[in-house]
Amino acid sequence: MAAPSNEPGPLARNQSGRLSPATEDVILLVGRVALGAIFVKSGLQKLLALGAFAAVLSSRGLPAAAILAGIGAAVEFVGGVLIVTGFRTRCASLLMILFVIVATAISHRFWEFAEPARRLQESQFFKNLSIIGGFILLFSTGSGRYSVDRWWRRGKRG
Fold this sequence. Notes:
Blueprint: H1 21-48, H2 50-59, H3 65-85, H4 89-107, H5 117-141, H6 148-157
Helix pairs in contact: 1-3, 2-3, 3-4, 4-5
């Protein structure tokens, strides 16, 4: 049986209680990918079927649904890509907060539904609220080491 190691593990904290910078950067990368992936996938699906997406928006009473569908699908896809890659992360986080607020207001007004649809829409509403929380945290922390933002800053320094 091997003796226990005194080496700190990957989740060891320093004296201030923070994780090591390397660990925080890996966690930010994983978090960015997890948070952005749903938007990349959903945005791409909407871009590939803009007519269907526009029909959904029109059925919800939105004017100029075809134009809004194009804008919404593009913002969702591009915003997701920006988050995943860590490019202009803070700006992208703000854009995605706005996108999720608008999407939630359009699609998940649970108070307008009867049961059981109400429960489903309420769940979607609170899921989106959690996603907004993730973007707020990402706005606060920035993209981390493993990101285009970091690569870009290094390139500018020469």
